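[agent] plan:
  1. take the single chain provided in the ticket
  2. run structure prediction with default settings
  3. attach structure tokens to the ticket
  4. add a short note for the reviewer (M.T.)
[agent] executing step 1
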Amino acid sequence: MGMNRDMMAKIQKLQEQAMKAQQDLEEQVVDGSAGGGAVAISLTGGMRVQSLKIDPEVVDPGDVEMLEDLVTAAVNEALQKVQGLQAQQISGLAGQFGINLPR
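[agent] step 2 finished; step 3 output follows
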């Protein structure tokens, strides 16, 4: 038993909307920071690093571990924000098709 035209059209529309949502997500930028802004990172929704800034005052050759911790914290904050953007995109698409996702 084949799919009817209406179902095929809905599937195609969903695919087009998913592709558009992915493109929109890739264009969005989120920021993460640590150490009161001593380390700041910008990521795209596609999880690409757009920029990384490090205040020269936190660059201490005798304490590289602190700088590593700050960079890690800033990256993790930005990644959490990207995950939030992704969840919003998925929820929006699912809602358009009457799919309820668990929160």
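[agent] step 4 note for reviewer: The domain at 23-96 is CATH 3.30.1310.10 (Ybab; Chain: A;).
[agent] ticket updated
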